[in-house]
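Notes continue from the previous slide.

Worked example: a multi-chain complex. Inputs as given:
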Amino acid sequence: MSLRTIRILLWLPLVGFLIVLGLVFTGLIRPHDASIRSQMVGRPLPAFSLPSTRPRQPPLTSASFADGKVRLVNIFASWCVPCVVEMPQLAQLKQAGVAIEGIASRDTPADSLAFLQRNGDPYDRIGDDKTSAAQIAIGSSGVPETYVVDGKGVIRAQHIGPIQPQDVADILAAVRDAQ
Amino acid sequence: MKRVIALTLILAPTVSWADPTMAPEPLSYTQLPDPAQEAAAQALMQTIRCVVCQGQSIADSDADLAGDMRALVRQKIAAGEKPEAIRAWLIQRYGRWVSYRPPVDAVTWPLWAAPILLLAVGGLLARSAFRRRRT
């Protein structure tokens, strides 16, 4: 090896070090987002049929979404604290004319209904998802999560976590986009 | 009195964020009766990532959703589905991230090629070093 190439090669460790330093700093500056987005956005709702949480009501089926109406699907649970936080916003969306269907995750109907008695009930229909089967099929990784489903039954958008007051405008825009 | 109440509130254990009261699905903690099927389910569960306790496999995680995913895997295996088909089903929902076993394809080939390339480079370096010593 010539002296010149050796001189150039001597800089390589420093360059490598600076690259690692850059990686560490971008990791420090940019907050880590650990939420797992569903890959089902843009795809039709997976097939499911959940018995109704309310007594003597027809089941909540994925097929019933393909009727031309845009809806929200909200996955909630009576044991989920952030779900309480978003209830006023769901009521606000319902008042704005958005149809909301509920999926009760890992709950008993009695607990779900008591939860809605306390916090208000924005749902047209509620499906009882005891084993999280529908939740997993949709690609949801927790409660609460909200999906915008268009009139053909295709999932168009996903909101992870509780809907805060500042999120309502975004959700309404996503519903408009799905028309 | 106010101070006592405040202190009690501070010291009281914080309410957990989310804790279902329902009993877990039987199949999330019970093995399948057929040992061959259970082995296939176990092998798959060890390579599926839990979406709650990220970094653990669903076989290791105590999260409720991981339990439900184990039950789902066992049900699907018992129904005769192939493990790789179940993996593909989960990847379709949660992305490639959910699988601990990366396939060899256009995106992941460097992952598999890197060790071979590094070995080759190391071999070349060693060869030139030994040659120099001999002369």
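Summary box: Residues 12-29 of chain A form the longest helix (18 residues). Chain A has two domains: 1-32, 49-177.
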